[in-house]
């Protein structure tokens, strides 16, 4: 398999990843609004406003999430594509699965991109307890980066492997879409439960 094929596969998996993050964010917004405004009842917002938010917020936040995915995961995906291309040329077969061994190092790059390329705790009207964001790595930040990078790496690896074997990539994409919908729904429920204290 040549470098171009590996690069295209990893680029496609990055585009799918951006779409899945956007879908998860969109679903979480719709679920949160549905629970808070229609099931529980929100006396502070008319239902017409909630419907308007359900229509407008998911696409806007989905685009923002996709931009965040490109900012945070592009460099790690490029590194992984180079690594997989090198291993595949040298050893062929299933050598690309060794990319999982590079995950701890890739997570450092993910943390760096997240920490320095994305806006941190931006607040238009800072409260009295607001403090500026402190850049730097910590165990919690590293583990968070590794968790998200593990998800992206696993999807990219399965997507690449399906193409490498000559199989259809549709099952990988469909399962990942189902996971994104499920995670978005659960996250929306958690956010809605958090909103109940203010109603």
Structure description:
With 199 residues, the protein is an all-alpha fold. It has one domain. Helix content is 76%, strand content 0%. It has helices at residues 3-41, 47-91, 103-117, 139-164, 170-195. α1 (3-41) crosses α4 (139-164). The model has no long low-confidence stretch (mean pLDDT 88).
Which tags fit this structure?
single chain; 199 residues; mainly alpha; 5 helices; 0% strand; globular
Can you summarize the main beta sheet? none
Mean pLDDT: 88
Please, how many helices?
A: 5
By secondary-structure content and strand pairing, the structural class works out as mainly alpha
How large, in whole angstroms, is the Cα Rg?
20 Å
Shape: globular
Distance between the termini: 57 Å
Please tell me the total number of domains. Answer: 1
Which residues sit in consecutive blocks of at least 5 with pLDDT less than 50? none
């Amino acid at each position: 398999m040549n470098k171009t094929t590996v690069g295209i596969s990893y680029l496609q998996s990055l585009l799918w990843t951006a779409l899945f993050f956007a879908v998860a964010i969109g679903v979480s917004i719709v679920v949160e609004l549905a629970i808070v405004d229609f099931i529980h009842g929100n006396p502070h917002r008319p239902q017409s406003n909630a419907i308007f938010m359900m229509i407008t917020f998911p696409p806007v936040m989905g685009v923002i999430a996709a931009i965040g995915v490109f900012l945070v995961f592009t460099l790690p995906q490029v590194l992984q594509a180079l690594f997989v291309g090198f291993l595949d040329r040298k050893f062929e077969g299933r050598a690309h699965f060794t990319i999982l061994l590079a995950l701890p190092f890739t997570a450092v790059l993910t943390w760096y991109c997240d920490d320095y390329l994305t806006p941190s705790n931006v607040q238009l009207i800072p409260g009295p307890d607001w403090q500026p964001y402190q850049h730097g790595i910590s165990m919690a930040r590293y583990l968070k980066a590794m968790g998200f990078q593990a998800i992206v790496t696993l999807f990219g690896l399965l997507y690449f492997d399906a193409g490498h074997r000559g199989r259809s990539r549709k099952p990988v994409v469909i399962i990942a879409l189902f996971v994104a919908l499920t995670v978005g729904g659960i996250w929306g429920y958690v956010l809605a439960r958090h909103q109940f204290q203010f109603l």
